[in-house]
Design brief:
With 266 residues, the chain is α+β, with helices and mostly antiparallel strands. Helices cover 48% and strands 13% of the residues. The protein has helices spanning 3-17, 45-57, 76-81, 105-119, 132-167, 180-197, 211-222, 237-248; strands spanning 20-21, 29-31, 36-38, 59-62, 65-71, 89-97, 255-257, 263-265. The chain is elongated.
Length: 266
């Protein structure tokens, strides 16, 4: 793979797993979003080195990945020599992608969660870390918001293009211009579509297709534009048909300006 293809694939894996990608291509790494916070000054020397031993020895390997952990601290003595009594360091969980073609994103996320949960015993900060179930819900919510935002951006862009062409203006509407009741309806429809049908584009075989594109395509497909789910080569042909049929079942929707100058959907 060339560098641009590697970058696109890593970005997609970050989307699928909810892990962070820092853009580095020399060693493809994904990071768990939250860290395990540690105040070394609240630990005995024995506890600190027991923690470090567990960190160093923890390693999980799977199909196309390795999971390891590291402690963002020089040494136990460093904390006391520098008098860093009010600072925390952290344990970070990292997923090293060893084979982009064979990478099993679900197994990799499970392994990262296992590492996090095993090492969370050392979290002696005031912060409460997410458990695996919370992280999965957090990932889903972030993906849903991306889907909704891209749907709204597509709808407003098309609406503004039409309005500006017919009225000879250059006004651009934003999300805050949408009437609350219409925003609620849009969010309900997008949430329903996302929850029911995201598995049709959320697959390892669906390369370089993102939630942001899906939100855009939901709007284009339900309104019968010249592009949409049906011509996305990144999606399997049988899934293209299913997504197209399901999107069209929501019916066409249009926007208009109300007497209060807010944008409404009908």
């Amino acid at each position: 793979m060339d560098k641009e293809t590697i970058k696109q694939r890593m970005e997609q894996l970050a989307q699928l797993t909810g892990l962070q990608f820092d853009g580095g291509l020399d060693d493809q790494r994904l990071f768990l979003e939250e860290n395990i916070n540690v105040f070394a000054n609240d630990m005995t020397e024995k506890e600190y080195f027991e923690m470090q031993k567990q960190i160093d020895s923890f390693e999980l390997k799977g199909q196309g990945f390795e999971v390891f952990c590291w402690n963002d601290s020089s040494s136990y003595d460093y904390w006391y020599e520098e008098g860093l009594t009010d600072c925390s360091n952290y344990i970070m969980v990292t997923v090293l992608v060893t084979d982009l073609e064979k990478f099993d994103h679900k197994a990799a996320l499970d392994a990262a969660n296992e590492a996090f949960d095993n090492l969370s015993v050392w979290d002696n900060s005031e912060y409460h870390t997410f458990r695996a179930m919370d992280r999965e819900e957090n990932i889903k919510n972030k993906r849903l918001e991306t889907f909704i935002e891209s749907y709204l951006e597509a709808a407003l862009t098309l609406f503004d293009d039409y309005e500006n062409e017919t009225t000879d203006s250059d006004h651009c509407h934003s999300f805050t211009d949408i009437a609350p009741e219409s925003m609620e309806k849009i969010r309900e429809e997008c949430t329903e579509f996302f929850n029911k049908y995201k598995d049709y584009w959320d697959t390892d075989s669906t390369l370089f297709y993102y939630d942001s594109q899906a939100g855009n395509d939901f709007l284009l497909t339900r309104n019968g534009h010249g592009t949409g789910f049906w011509d996305r080569k990144e999606i399997k042909e049988e899934y293209q048909t299913i997504l197209t049929d399901r999107a069209q079942s929501f019916g066409q929707c249009d926007l208009y300006i109300g007497d209060d100058n807010l944008v409404y959907q009908f």
